[in-house]
Amino acid sequence: MVTIDIRSTANKLLKGDVRGVVEDVKVQIERSVGLVGVIIISLSAMLGSGLFVLPSFAAMIMGEGIWLAFLLAASVVLPGALSKSELASGMPSSGGSYVYLERTYGPLVGTISGLGLWASFLLKSSFALIGFSAYMYTVTTYFDIELNTYIVSLSALILITVVNILGVKKVKIIQAPILGFTLCLLLIVSVMALFADSTDMSGPWNAAWDTDPWTIAETAAFVFVAYAGVTKVAAIGGEVKNPGKNLPYGILISLIIATILYCSITYMMMAAIPGEWWVNSSGDAIEDPIYKFVESVAGSKIGVFAAILAVLTMISMALAGILAASRFLFAMARDGLLPQSLEEVNAKYETPHWPIILTAAAMGLTILLLPVKDVAKLASGFKIMIFIMINSCVIILRQTSYKHEWNPEYRAPLYPLIHIWGILSGLALVYIMGEKAIIGAVAAIVMGLIVYQLYGKNHAHPRTTPFDTFRSEFRNPSETEHDRREVAFNAADMGGKGHLTLKEFQVAMHALGFSYDDAECRVIFHEIDTDENGVIDIVEFTAQFE
Predict the structure, then answer these.
(1) CATH dotted code for 464-545
(2) Under CATH, domain 32-458 is a member of which superfamily?
(3) pLDDT per residue over 129-170, tens digit each?
(4) Domain extents for the chain?
(5) Pair 212, 62: CB distance under 8 Å
(6) Comparing C-alpha atoms, which of 155, 142, 127, 448 is closest to residue 308?
(7) Are 230 and 21 within 8 A, CB to CB?
(8) Which of 6, 92, 308, 443 is deepest in the core (most CB within 10 A)?
(9) Average confidence (pLDDT) over 81-89
(10) Chain centroid, CA 79 distance in Å
(11) What tens digit of pLDDT does each residue of 253-289 get?
């Protein structure tokens, strides 16, 4: 790995040589994720609840032909995937949709979109835990063990919340192999179903084309959440080799693979099992369709094995979901749109514990209070709205490029037709989803407006001026002043890790007598915290600025 010469780069920064700093970063930071890595990350973020839970609920709306709804949903996702590829290419250091929207539209829309993204991720994670409890019930029933599904779901929620706070992020590493193994099993079972006597290959095909367009569109809107993770990999654009090619190609290839898997597996699922098998004795949709499919084709033992794999996959998805959702609150607090406590990281574990706890609490209420179908519908509704806004970002940035520099390495093709299609089709799907999706959209807008008016409007302020002043004041200290700073910084380091959290940095700055209030210290801290992990390294910090 090639490392950055911190002192050389810092000197360029102090001299105002921004272009030199950018070139240093571009040349010297290691890019380790290739095309295959982008595809794996995107697929592992996308596949899961879309296969394990959604099919039976989609069948309640449309019947056997749900494969066509997955295909239509993919066509609406495509413009957003292309747009986000362009945005990630043009803002490679940014960390997701919230940043793109906030930088394009400003803090008000940033507040609304940030809260909407937070809601969509926590709803999707809640949906994964609901599916987890259904498959866990299948497993415990097979082994004759009695468990309350709500208790199981909430216990899993508490567990993954603690894991997130502890910072054991590598647990996500197991998600890709488990999901890959499950998909291999499903593909094998699908091939077996081709030769089963009960399989009717014409059923799903005829059912799809016999369904009226409105119902197909309604189902497509419902299953939209299955593709929610397709652009998640854009958040690590700075770590991708040759991002101008690998990022858009990886996103598009993963979208094509996911669409083929969704359509083919749901097609075989519906063809292999006769009758309305997705309805339980109470007239509601079953929550473990993969188990029913595998059991019907390969037997109950293999079905239980598939259910165990589903349990592991859904838990790892919920774990990653809380991690992602909590970071939106963390990023908004960094921009002054939410209170400082939401950007504080734990001194010992260096994780944003309050955003994690708040996200988990909202998920718990979702699991207890909302029906499964409403959770999926709201998650899809929020995600469609974000994709609509992402498409509009590209249009705005290109149309106003004469006022600012917008020269991304990758430009989405078929501009602006495909972007307009993404916006109009997304609006149509939200409308077709009905009043719950519209109520959710209005609620997100109202909540964002209230939060911005009560807090963000008065606390979001420019970051550059305090940092420029601090930079000039901090350079070239005497030996005595240098020693005094080291003592103050190490005394403020309550975690004893050689890092300073925001609160610790504020304490040290006040102890050293710098005339900055807490808000200005926040701005300075954010400028120094370039990797945006909520802590700054004391040694690197002093070496860079002195």
Answers:
(1) 1.10.238.10
(2) Amino acid/polyamine transporter I (1.20.1740.10)
(3) 888 888 988 888 888 888 777 888 888 889 888 888 887 555
(4) 1-30, 32-458, 464-545
(5) no
(6) 142
(7) no
(8) 92
(9) 84
(10) 18
(11) 889 999 999 999 999 999 999 889 999 888 888 989 9
